[in-house]
Design a protein that fits this description.
The protein is an alpha/beta fold and 860 residues long. The chain is built from 33 helices and 26 strands. The protein has three domains: 159 residues, P-loop containing nucleotide triphosphate hydrolases (Rossmann fold, 3-Layer(aba) Sandwich); 238 residues, P-loop containing nucleotide triphosphate hydrolases (Rossmann fold, 3-Layer(aba) Sandwich), CATH 3.40.50.300; 308 residues, ABC transporter involved in vitamin B12 uptake, BtuC (Orthogonal Bundle). A hairpin with a 2-residue loop joins β14 and β15.
């Protein structure tokens, strides 16, 4: 599908600008300036984001900050919040001027930010996100932590359960949690970056109420938005930015909407919405939906005609999003949907896409774009078969097609080879549109197509959607903005409680009429509204589902497998449970458990440590020079100190290479693996240095038939699990692995957390090496390397995610137990050693598949 390039842009008017570029209005004496940024510059590779920017906000005012995507608004507020380090300029909080600023320092001075893309950690629960964002002293000063958190969520109208993981929630719920986090700090300076972009009208009213309350208690509020009607309702002053520089700062009442738009886009703006064509009323139905039902909607029947733009309206959470996703094949549904003469295969996104349906998701970062790829790669992704010859993509044809769409859609990028992450939000959204156009769709589904984009991009996106419809392609638009539905759509249907309760067409499509239908539906919905996923009171089934997706479900599974395997082996060979064998198994288990605990800490941060096996072996080799006959007690103790220092140094080097040397965790720890193994072979080319029997006996001490080392491993698993769930250290480690950028915004010291994780991993490996020394009794350079693979397998079996953020020390202990049991059981079952690897391989694959499926259950 080809869209004509936009017409030439008219030159900006020269008259009238001088009055708009006036200096900032003098603040009344009673209004103190709480935040002042002066002469701020910020340069990124290839672009100057901020150019000598000075900005101030006063107590008791709501100061709107406007501008196109990429104008520098979020960057400026990132500097104010300590998330971005400015190249030049000063930051002052009241009378205090700071040379350096971190997110924690900004928070301590009373600043809170509501980010456009919420600074939430998807693998953590709502309660854990709140706990990490809000100082413990503030939470504890307000009574029970749980009840206080519930109050904060209720304050903004968020019904999400505290036990729900962020990744299970809707975009709107996440936005409300981000707002609740900020307001719970009772900030002196509140920065809101597109706080209502994902919200419906009822939720927007809650946000405005919270903003007014903050201003009434003399807080300074910075309100960033692309919605001028909202700015008119809430703001006192307005600052407009363009191309990284301030264009004007004025009282809002002194500027018209046209003047503000001209300052934002740099040219006069005559209209927002393209004209609607006259419709004859006898167009053929291209999309026919009959009694479509899903988890959140039921019995939806409608038709969309060729060349028509149909709008889906209603309060967010009433099933319209799920209905749209069902049409895209992303949600299971019953009923039927026909596109032309073809039946859409519901629940099959690949088949729906092949039928000609192009879906533009609301969450462009999470679902719409591959942020590590280029503009070209993102745009051409759905159309690659068109550019392929004999199975190979013709790069020239691909680049030419993407270049055409770039011009047609006015995508502002220095090159189609630029990273998609370098583009502004509006241009990223147009890349998603370009992908849809290149796929030559017969139906376009657009969910919140202008969410989080600027006024100029709004106009271009509306033009693009209208051009698509004018070429005969039906377009379905879901929007929480009734004014947008009025201006863009030929017809609007309204959802309530998952059903269609109203339809407007022609001149009846107006913001007032849409609102009237919604208000009527809302009063009925409030009487018998059902529980929504992730909200309301938990049923027993809810708790079961939550547990199945949690970190402890793998532990239950492992425990069951361990018991069943033990029982089966015992029935075949009763000697399996003999005291001597049980003691031996538990001793071997302790060594693997200690090393697995260290591996888990690293995996929680999103890394991996391949060097643990050779490090354990090197520790034993070094001890073989100290813990031997003829050495004094002091020399032996010194040997343990030397080995601990080596272990800590190895962890420190790994962490520094990864965080400061920018090595990947695989590259850094693989290099360390090779180096450590080489050192071991140099020190001990062959076995030698027998360990003192007294030391071995002390390490293998028992309580009855149970090794003390095993009891220590169990105790450590419990203590570390408690620390992982209930301390800031544990939340920080999991948060870094879940989403590093958000963790930084929440004040987590990311570099320190990651380097510390590698040091902790080496320290736990040191404990495992002590057990290995007692098992071997001699310095052997070839022993220990197997612990690398075994420790990774143990934590994966225990439910840890290789991508970070998820895992359990209890699961790691049980994973180590299963590996040790399998190794031992194959002997008693008289199976070859190959069966050990087959069992472990199958179990690991099965565990990964099971855990992934369980965690995705219920996700959108």
């Amino acid at each position: 599908m080809r869209i004509a390039p936009p017409e030439g842009l008219p030159p900006a008017a020269a008259s009238g600008n001088d009055t708009l570029m006036s200096a900032q209005v003098e603040a009344p004496r009673q209004q103190a300036t709480l935040l002042q940024l002066t002469g701020v510059w910020k340069r990124f590779p290839g672009v100057t984001a901020l150019k000598d920017v000075s900005f101030a906000v006063r107590a008791g005012e709501v100061h709107a900050l406007l501008g196109e995507n990429g104008a520098g608004k979020s960057t400026l507020m990132g500097v104010a919040g300590g998330e971005i380090v400015a190249g030049e300029g000063t930051i002052a909080f009241g009378d205090e001027t700071l040379d350096r600023l971190t997110p924690t320092m900004a928070r301590d001075r009373g600043l809170a930010i509501v980010h456009q893309h919420p600074a939430l950690l998807p693998d953590l629960t709502v309660a854990e996100n709140m706990a990490l964002a809000v100082p413990a002293a503030l939470r504890e000063a307000n009574g029970s932590g749980t009840s206080w958190m519930r109050e904060q969520l209720d304050r903004v109208g968020c019904s999400a359960r505290l036990t729900s993981r962020i990744q299970d929630l809707t975009v709107a719920q996440r936005a409300l949690i981000e707002l609740a986090k900020a307001l719970s700090l009772n900030p002196r300076i509140l920065i809101l970056d597109e706080p209502t972009a994902a919200l419906g009208a009822d939720m927007v009213a809650r946000v405005f109420e919270a903003v007014r309350e903050a201003a009434m208690r003399e807080a300074a509020v910075v309100y960033i938005s692309h919605r001028l009607p909202e700015v008119r309702r809430i703001a006192d002053r307005v600052t407009v930015m363009r191309d990284g520089a301030i264009q004007a700062t004025e009282p809002l009442e002194s500027l018209t909407d046209e003047e503000i738009l001209r300052l934002i886009v740099g040219r006069p703006v005559s209209t927002t919405y393209p004209p609607k064509p006259e419709r004859s009323g006898d167009e053929r139905a291209t999309l026919t939906v009959t009694e479509l039902s899903g988890d959140e909607f039921s019995d939806v029947s409608l038709e969309v005609h060729a060349g028509e733009i149909l709008g889906l309206g209603g309060i967010a959470g009433n099933g319209q999003s799920e209905f749209m996703r069902a049409l895209a094949g992303l949600e299971s549904a019953t009923g039927s949907a026909r596109l032309g003469d073809a039946e859409l295969k519901l629940g099959r996104p690949d088949a729906v896409r092949d039928a000609g349906v192009a879906y533009l998701p609301a969450d462009r970062h999470g679902e719409g774009l591959l942020m590590s790829l280029t503009v070209r790669e993102n745009a051409a992704l759905s159309a690659l078969p068109q550019f392929a010859r004999r199975g190979f993509v013709d790069r020239r044809r691909e680049a030419a097609a993407v270049e055409h769409e770039r011009a047609a859609l006015n995508i502002r990028t220095p090159s189609i080879e630029a990273g998609i992450s370098t583009l502004s939000g509006g241009n990223q959204q147009k890349v998603v549109l370009a992908r849809a156009m290149l796929s030559e769709p017969t139906l376009v589904l657009a969910e919140e197509p202008t969410q989080g984009v600027d006024a100029g991009a709004h106009i271009e996106i509306y033009r693009i959607l209208r051009d698509v419809a004018d070429q005969g392609t039906p377009v379905v638009v879901l929007s929480s903005d009734s004014r947008e539905l009025e201006g863009l759509c030929d017809r609007v249907v309204v959802f309530s409680r998952g059903q269609l309760i109203g339809e407007l067409s022609g001149d009846d499509v107006s913001e007032e009429n849409i609102g009237r239908v919604i208000v009527t539906a809302t009063s009925h919905r409030a009487e018998s509204a059902g529980r929504r996923r992730g909200t309301g009171e938990e049923t027993f089934l809810d708790r079961v589902r939550t547990f199945a997706k949690g970190d402890y479900a793998p532990s239950v599974t492992l425990a069951a497998v361990i018991v069943l395997l033990g029982l089966y082996t015992w029935t075949v060979n009763e000697r399996f449970t003999a005291p001597f064998n049980v003691t031996s198994v538990l001793t071997l288990l302790a060594a693997l458990a200690f090393i697995s605990f260290g591996q888990l800490i690293v995996l929680l941060t999103g890394g991996i440590d391949l060097s643990v096996g050779p490090l354990a072996g090197l520790c034993v080799v070094v001890w073989s020079f100290f813990v031997v006959d003829g050495k004094s007690t002091g020399a032996i103790a010194f040997g343990f100190v030397v080995v601990l220092a080596i272990a800590v140094a190895v962890g420190l080097i790994n962490g520094v290479l990864i965080r400061y040397g920018r090595f990947t965790s695989v590259a850094a720890t693989l290099a360390m693996y090779i180096a450590l193994q080489g050192v071991s072979l140099i020190l001990r080319p062959e076995q030698g240095g027998y360990i003192l029997t007294s030391v071995v006996d002390a390490i293998n001490a028992k309580v009855g038939e149970v090794p003390v080392a095993f009891l220590v491993a169990v105790a450590l698993a419990i203590l570390m699990e408690l620390a992982l769930r209930r301390t800031r250290w544990g939340l920080a480690v999991r948060g870094v692995g879940s989403r590093e950028e958000a963790a930084h915004r929440l004040g987590v010291r990311v570099n320190r957390s990651i380097v510390g994780a590698y040091v902790a991993c080496s320290a736990f490996t040191y404990l495992g090496a002590i057990m290995l020394m007692a098992q071997l009794g001699v310095g052997d350079p070839t022993q220990g390397v197997s612990y690398t693979l075994a420790s990774i397998t143990a934590v994966v079996l225990g439910g840890a995610s290789l991508f970070g953020g998820r895992g359990s020390f209890v699961g790691a202990l049980l994973g180590a137990a299963l590996i040790t049991e399998i190794t031992n059981a194959t002997t008693f079952l008289q199976l070859s050693q190959a069966w050990q690897f087959w069992f472990l391989g199958l179990l690991t694959l099965g565990a990964a598949a099971t855990y992934t499926t369980a965690r995705r259950a219920g996700l959108r």
